[in-house]
Specification:
Length: 481
Amino acid sequence: MPVQSTSPDYDDHLPEWLMMDDALEGECAIKRNDRNLPKPSGMVEAEKLDGQGNAYLYANYRDRAQYEHWVRDALRSMMGLVSRLIPEIKLPSGMQDLEENATADGFGLNQLFFRMVRQAVSHGRVPLVVNVDDSGEPYFSTYATRNAINWKVGSMGGRQDLTLSVFVEFRDNQEDEYDHDCKRVYRVFKLLDGVCHTAVLGEDGAVVEELRPLGTVNNDNRLVRGLEYLPVIYCGSTDNSPGVDEVPLLTMARAALKSYQLSADYFTALHQTSHPQPWVSGLDDQVELSVTGPSAAWDLGRNGSCGYLEFQGAGIEAVRQAMDDQKNAALEAGAKVMDASGTESGEARKTRQNDQHATLHSIVITVAAAIEQGLRYAAEWTGYNPDDVTFTVKPEFIIPDVDAQVLAELQKAVAAGGISWDTYWQYLTTGKLPERAYDEEATLVGDEADAGRGLNLDKDDGSDTPAGQPGQPAAGADDAA
């Protein structure tokens, strides 16, 4: 089979990914693809009679339709929540540069995290590849979901692991520096004799980059230890297995597309109700009518008659209601919290926010795990201890809801020595009381009290020398005398 061969799972899910591409690009992309708005049967028959002359019928029908950018707004809203999160990163000393320079285009791990979360939300799948540049420094490459065209899983040492991954890449046309056309090539990763190899092939199967093993090399650029796995991670919306996960915003995209299709009928009907069609009959052969409008007068002759065919629009209200139903379906399925009627209760809003956060929670955890796995691959590849790598993110999206009365009571309890300042501070910043045993809390209160006495002694002494240091009187000694 040729290198362009695709996985059956890829073929099954490609239409969904293309739909999400159009939904995120917006109305221009939606209207550019006629598959998003089927032609009414009347227009199909009209084009059979005169395809070029009657093409304006569908063009007007499509142009009047309106696509709502619910998907793009929802994604922006979700990423606004994610942007508040700060990853906790721990790397070996020799890999510290990755924090600021981790991607193929020179961005750090934080930007890599945000990019991957965005793609996981919009497409449910982020192909991530670890590589090492010519200077021996590791870096990460991510691929568009639709460009990871093929993969296979096989048994390796009794466990299931990737044995093949194929990606589409685009390279500049070197013949014309001003031309934006690119040529397609295919990067292949595969296991041969238990070692990962990679090559780049052209569309005709010609070799662009020779097949070579990946792994640790010596000063002579000779392979010392080959990678026993593919440095490829398929980050999903629920887990990081090679299988295809669901697209979190797909239901919203479908609702937005259906609303777009209904809007074409709705706005066409409104147009027709506001522009009645004049009709005439019984004209003599000598009578010609070439001008219509409020400033025109018709001479119909002795036997002529005229009138207007008005579009009644009995189904307009039903179409409008169907559009509202699609909007409500989108709001229920999506991440962005929008008021459908302005009367949504606070509890309903909170419920939808919790649903959104549950989706984001799993995505953030999954993306962080994928990046950590990639960093472990990079550490092992470059000779560092993978156990020294940590990349974690706490998915806390809700702004703390602090009760002023509870906070005041906690402050009184701190002043009375009943609870610690640490407990007070945690409630102030998180809106939650820490979960710890009474003995642990009592110990914190005692430690803070001891520290406070030490500070007070220093303050009363009026010197920079700690109380009790040899050669200095204890604080308050003169007063006692």
